[in-house]
């Protein structure tokens, strides 16, 4: 029967029944190598039967023949004498597990957690006083009671987005060890910029750069979640990789008191048009001020008074309309959309129920240009956008955003 865990006690056993049992177990696991000499043993603690041996020059953890290894443990290879030349770890003899060699070449360890229910083979070589050394180990990770995975990632793979776009990761079950999961989320960028993750709840975590993305940026997310322990007995079942591109810096400003919307692309004004915003008088009719992001668009969108509890057609507040060229900017029902019925008010008065009403021509143009994650900043109302309303994440100052990280530190992305 194979040993569980990472115990070292078998090194101290003498030959006999225990040695015979271990030999049988290693054979069952398709063990590699069989020497007991210093330069070529099978990892930790090889020795000739009944005889003491010098510690092996290379030590591998987990030990050769171990099964039931926790996937959130790392493979560690240590040169107890001399230095390491090369270490290769493979999952199921196929997929190579990435690792890092120390500067002094005395140790090597895997960068990420291990895949559950997988057999790993580790092959190492080194040199000790001019003599070549080597060690090999083969072990298996446990099959967990339960697993978790990534249910959804925003943006979509290959999508081109605006400069304010967040990265939203949704898990298929609650995460208790948020720090472990957050640590597994690697970001790579063509132009690395600082940012931070913030947990919205146990299933959702969001990345936001400190400042808007540079136009033309390429971003890749590699979630090394396979083997990450999210809760007792719950491990990540697989990794996930995706990527997106940032488009031009399209930043619009809606000046509610002046009834004007101005669109700038890469710092240059490209359009300015009269609009009509929320008529006010009540909070529900007041357009929210702050940094909004475009969340999606549709043509048409059916808008009705049901959002404020009015469904009776006889009620003077009742309405139900098909709205053309609608670009969503919050979760509370705010859009930039065509409003041919209020063209006379656009540029002169605010008469909407909270949306930004525009002429059919301008709304059509804005709709065609818009990418998810474009910035729409609204100024001049007494109702601030809540940071958790839609993608209002830029409403939080950087220090407050960063405080929502389980690791309490910004992300340092690698270069793509």
Automatic annotation (TrEMBL):
Residues 1-30 form the signal peptide. Keywords: Acyltransferase, Cell shape, Cell wall biogenesis/degradation, Peptidoglycan synthesis, Signal, Transferase. InterPro entries: Big_10 (IPR041280), LD-transpeptidase (IPR050979), LD_TPept_cat_dom (IPR005490), Transpep_catalytic_dom (IPR038063). Residues 250-379 form the L,D-TPase catalytic domain. The active site is at 337 (proton donor/acceptor), 355 (nucleophile). SUPFAM superfamilies: L,D-transpeptidase catalytic domain-like. Coiled coil: none annotated. Pathway: Cell wall biogenesis; peptidoglycan biosynthesis. The keyword Acyltransferase applies. This is Ig-like domain-containing protein. The lineage of its organism: Bacteria, Bacillati, Actinomycetota, Actinomycetes, Streptosporangiales.
